[in-house]
From TrEMBL:
Residues 538-637 form the Cytochrome oxidase subunit II copper A binding domain. The chain crosses the membrane at residues 21-45. Its cofactor is Ca(2+); Cu cation. Cu cation Z1 binds at residues 325, 381. Predicted to be exported by the Tat system. The position of the signal peptide cleavage has not been experimentally proven. Cu cation A1 binds at residues 582, 617, 621, 628. Nitrous-oxide reductase is part of a bacterial respiratory system which is activated under anaerobic conditions in the presence of nitrate or nitrous oxide. NCBIfam families: nitrous_NosZ_RR. This is Nitrous-oxide reductase. It comes from Candidatus Halomonas stercoripullorum. It comes from the Bacteria. Cu cation Z3 binds at residues 132, 432. Cu cation A2 binds at residues 617, 619, 621, 625. CDD domains: N2OR_C (cd04223). The gene is nosZ.
Length: 637
């Protein structure tokens, strides 16, 4: 029965001792790793000291005047904060933060009923480890519909709508642990989101085989980009690391370390080679269609056996130097390029040869390798300028190296050619790098970002925990030139940069938006018209409060509940003025949410003590913003 109620540059000097130490280590490491192979092909290196920016083509001027717009959107992973951060490029002004795997006091993400539905069972987690943001495709170009990103900490993949810059879907991948590498199908469109699960676990992981590492395995996972459902999984040998897809929609490839199948560090270092696992998407789909799969535990997701021993011809294992890390597809669609990490080389796999590999026309998996240039110590990730050049981060050398792909292939075939164009120092220990539009066929070669793991001596001291350092480099001319340092927090892992015209955003919500459709449906069940009604509905100890907001008023300036009631407040912002966002915050109840123009938001909490508790708009909205408030009257139980 229900009833209605109406932190100065450091005083000291740059740590030159550390730089000399790294240089010495690099020389020793190169000698020990390269061995008799020497440093053929390196030739006379050009080292560019990034002391100052100089004219270098059209990209050198990065000033964006007040009131002007940046040329690009830059999407940075938030690392251990669990969020996505939006920068304007080239200004590097931080524009917005999108909560994804974290909870957000400002927007109410993780508190509101709408966002709890998105988080699902994983709403109980307050942490995330956001690694790899990627933007959806149509025919190899970014289409600006969605951004996808993974959470290594809690084995999740999320989707962000780029018309409203809000997380709208999330899935926890079954049977695996720690989603690391993430990439999207590039053609004909993004039908699949592919996710690497990194760590080996027993299958099923129900306690029966915890002491038998021979039963441990991991999987490569395909998620439907439209429904965000896990469609199938492929069990593999080794730990999956990073990955990428081709430009035809047929193949994907992932670096794998720990071919030994070990569970300790010494064990994972025994073999001289590990591999790149190549996946045939068509063959996997065929295996699923023919019922050639199993299911594991409580999950009904089809699991295809892609291990070497299975012989299903859905995967191929290409030997590469030990413990490879990054794998990036060249923007001309020719190569998968795997970074050696513990080898000074990267391995170039020619994608056009993969048909022959799977059809058995090649005598050895290594026949698809067409180049293996030596670049320096600790190669981790590679990006591209669309002009035939690749740029690889060297973690140990603290450098980015620019090299020419076709010259590297010619050198591999025995020609005496220098493929390295330049090396530039970065500060310090770079991980991922990313150039403008370099994950699409439209790479324009203007700016490159080196996402460095350390920032020692670059910024004002802020105590023992230092920021990381993202450096913007001009790559529009023949030489790389450092343009800008940007401090970042909690180790952003990766970034993706697209032109501003590739995204079409909404400035005001549409009332029929699916983001809050479930809340609208609940109101309809209660007989409430959200745009006009300001009512309180009592249903036992559940109280549902519906109100509108129009600056500077809430539709209800007070409502009464009883101690112990479960209270749901639903607010519809009737303002139609762009940027006129309201908030709802209940004092001393840990309740806060954002309601943007024409949006409906709701939050549920317990009124756990008697008394008067004010609620107020906590997003500045009007000259009388301070007066936009009301009372929740809680009667004793």
């Amino acid at each position: 029965m229900s009833d209605k109620q109406t932190g100065d540059k450091l005083t000291g000097t740059v740590n030159q001792g550390r730089r000399r130490f790294l240089a010495g280590s690099a020389a020793v490491g190169a000698a020990s790793v390269a061995g008799a192979a020497g440093m053929a092909g390196v030739g006379a290196l050009t080292h560019s000291q990034p002391a100052k920016a100089q004219a270098n083509g059209s990209a050198a001027n990065i000033h964006v005047a007040p009131g002007e717009l940046d040329e690009y959107y830059g999407f940075w992973s938030g690392g251990k904060s669990g969020e996505v951060r939006i920068y304007g490029v080239p200004s590097m002004r931080e524009i917005m933060r999108i909560p994804v795997f974290n909870h957000c006091s400002a927007s109410g993400y993780g508190q509101t009923n709408e966002t709890k539905r998105i988080l699902g069972d994983s709403a109980k987690y307050f942490n995330g480890d956001a690694h790899h943001p990627h933007i959806s495709y149509t025919d190899g170009s970014h289409d600006g519909r969605y951004l996808f990103i993974n959470d290594k900490a809690n084995t999740r993949v999320a989707r962000v709508r780029l018309d409203v810059f809000k997380t709208d879907a999330m899935v926890t991948v079954p049977n695996v642990q720690a989603i690391h590498g993430l990439r999207l199908q590039k053609a004909p469109r993004t039908n699949y989101v592919f996710a690497n699960a990194e760590y080996l676990i027993p299958q099923p992981n129900d306690g029966r085989d915890i002491n038998d590492p021979t039963k441990y395995h991991t999987m490569w996972n395909a998620i439907d980009a439209d429904t965000m459902e896990v469609k199938w999984q492929v069990i593999v040998d080794g730990n999956l690391d990073n990955m990428d897809t081709d430009y035809t929609g047929k193949y994907a490839a992932a670096t794998c370390y720990n071919s030994e199948g070990a569970v300790t560090l010494p064990g994972t270092m025994r073999n001289e080679r590990d591999w790149v696992t190549v996946f045939s998407i068509e063959r996997i789909e065929q295996a699923v269609a023919e019922g050639n799969y199993i299911t594991i535990g409580d999950s009904d997701v089809p699991v295809v056996d892609g291990r070497k021993s299975a012989g299903l011809n859905v995967t191929r294992y290409v030997p590469v130097p030990k413990n490879p890390h990054g794998l990036n597809t060249s923007t001309d669609g020719k190569y998968f390029i795997a970074a050696g990490k513990l080898s000074p080389t990267v391995t170039m796999i020619e994608i056009a040869k993969l048909d022959d590999l799977f059809e058995g026309n090649l005598s050895d998996e290594r026949d698809v390798v067409v180049g293996e240039p030596e670049l320096g110590l600790g190669p981790l990730h590679t990006t591209y300028d669309g002009r035939g050049n690749a740029y690889t981060t060297l973690f140990i050398d603290s450098q980015v190296v620019k090299w020419n792909m076709e010259d590297a292939v010619r050198h591999y075939n025995g020609e005496d050619v220098n493929y390295i164009r330049q090396k530039i120092d970065v500060h310090y220990q770079p991980g991922h790098n990313h150039a403008t539009l370099s994950e699409s066929k439209d790479a324009d070669g203007k700016y490159l970002f080196s996402l460095n793991k350390f920032s020692k001596d670059r910024y004002l001291p802020v105590g023992p925990l230092h920021p990381e350092n993202d450096q913007m480099i001009d790559i529009s001319g023949e030489e790389m030139v450092l343009l800008h340092d940007t401090p970042t927090f909690a180790e952003p892992h990766d970034a993706v940069i697209i032109r501003r015209d590739q995204i079409q955003t909404k400035q005001i919500w549409e009332r029929n938006d699916p983001y809050f459709a479930a809340t609208v449906a609940r109101a309809q069940e209660d007989g409430v018209t959200l745009e006009t009604d300001n009512v309180v509905i009592r249903d036992g100890n559940q109280v549902r409060v519906y109100m509108t907001s129009v600056a500077p008023n809430f539709g209800l300036t007070e409502f009464t509940v009883k101690q112990g009631d479960e209270v749901t407040v639903t607010i519809t912002n009737l303002d139609r003025v762009e940027d006129l966002t309201h908030g709802f915050c209940v004092v001393n109840h840990g309740v806060s949410m954002e309601i943007s123009p024409q949006q409906t938001s709701s939050v549920t909490f317990t009124a756990d003590r008697p008394g008067v508790f004010w609620y107020y708009c906590n997003w500045f909205c009007h000259a009388l913003h301070m007066e936009m408030k009301g009372r929740m009257l809680v009667e004793p139980a």
